[in-house]
Amino acid sequence: MARPRFLPDNYVLALLSTVALASVLPASGMAAHVFENLTIAAIALLFFLHGAKLSREAIVAGLSHWRLHLLVIACTFVLFPLLGWALRPVLEPLVTPELYAGVIYLCVLPATVQSAIAFTAMARGNMPAAICSASASTLLGIFITPILVNLLMPQMVVGAGGGQHPDALAGIGRIMLQLLAPFVAGHLLRPWIGGFVKRRASVLKLVDQGSILLVVYTAFSAAVIEGLWQQIPLTALLGLFLVCGVILALAITSSTLLARRLGFSKEDEITIVFCGSKKSLASGVPMANVLFAPQAVGAMVLPLMLFHQMQLMLCAVLAQRYARRPEAQAPAQVPAAASAAPRG
Predict the structure, then answer these.
(1) Which DSSP string do the residues of 38-101 spell out, in sequence order?
(2) What is the pLDDT of residues 302-330, one digit of tens each?
(3) How many CB atoms lie within 10 A of CB 279?
(4) How many CB atoms lie within 10 A of CB 254?
(5) Which pLDDT band, with edges at 50, 70 and 90, does 162 fall under?
(6) Residue 262: is its pLDDT beyond 90?
(7) Nearest of 306, 312, 308, 318 to residue 253 by alpha carbon
(8) Apex 65 CA angle, 61 and 69, nearest 5
(9) Domains, the chain, ordered by start
(10) CA 322 → CA 113, 119, 131, 274, 276, distances in Å?
């Protein structure tokens, strides 16, 4: 029997099921501590495996196209935060202050890697540049995202001791310890374990998706115990759909117009649109787990989860439209480094 087209994919259904499970059976007491430790270990393993999978060629590929990379980084870390900040007086009344804090948080996150590259390939864009830009965005986000969080929402940042601590350097330090250190360790060990990780792609996918589900369950458990669903009315959840839709539409429109205004080719425009208008669930959830108090993480990642699904659906439509242009405009062959791109 064919799968109904209106149904989300299995992973989105798993995310929704995890939120439902945490809402009905939240982890508390000793179980909550166990899940928190499991979450830290799973995320460390996830970034270790990604470090082992990422090739040096994927980083070097397309580095010479600096104008494109600067524009993608500007869209990701300048345009998005400006949109979230400038639209706050108009959009925040549609949701709660806690949910709009989550909207601001998604605006300061790095771009996706896997889906940005996949959509660029589908649309016949500049693949080497997409690999370089998306990978650089993820790595830069480790440093830039905590700084932007500290600037735009300092009251939400949690210090090393668990209290409120508006220190960007502390956030960077925690992310480097919990995310970057395992990533670097995996990359240094790549000559010995890279082949094994590549051959076991299904294991990486399991760790990738499983760690996110674990973080979501732990985060929403803490949020539910603190009264998340009592604090968020149904009208605010409906308003969140509109808020995410407005920001996504403006980001895609702005990146497209900027690419054309600055004279980029159609292939480069595709790369800029798909790398500069997307936000990473894979990076955003672990970072939220590091930067914010446990009871705040649920409201922080809820807008990101919704935005992530919306961007996948809209970008799939855009990629198909780009792909229908004449074949003569297709770029050169995709390099082998494309297969080594990390997930995002």
Answers:
(1) HHHHHHHHHHHHHHHH--HHHHHTTTT-HHHHHHHHHIIIIIHHHHHHHTHHHHGGGS-HHHHH
(2) 899 889 878 877 887 888 889 888 875 44
(3) 27
(4) 18
(5) very low
(6) yes
(7) 318
(8) 95
(9) 10-160+169-320 (1.20.1530.20)
(10) 19, 10, 19, 11, 16
Alpha helices in the chain (DSSP H): 10-24, 29-53, 56-60, 66-74, 80-86, 88-91, 97-107, 114-122, 127-152, 168-175, 181-188, 190-199, 201-225, 228-231, 234-261, 266-276, 281-291, 294-323
**2 backbone φψ class: left, alpha, beta (φ>0; ψ -120 to 50):** beta
Q: How confident is the model at residue 219 (pLDDT cuts 50, 70, 90)?
A: confident
CB 342 within 8 A of CB 136: no
Model confidence pLDDT, tens digit, residues 135-160: 788 888 888 999 999 888 876 655 43
CA distance 124 to 68: 16
| Radius of gyration in angstroms for the set of CA atoms belonging to the chain, rounded to a whole number | 19
Quickly tell me which residue has 């229908």 as its tokens: 324
Comparing CA positions, the residue from 191, 193, 143, 202 lying closest to residue 170 is: 143
Half-sphere exposure of 234 (CA within 13 A, CB side): 0
CB neighbour burial string for 29-66, b if at least 16 within 10 angstroms, e if fewer: eeebeebbeebbebbbbbbbbbbbbbbeebbebbeebe
Query: Encoding tokens for residue 299?
Result: 């409201």
Q: Nearest to residue 138, comparing CAs of 116, 168, 117, 109?
A: 109
To which residue do tokens 């996504």 refer? 248
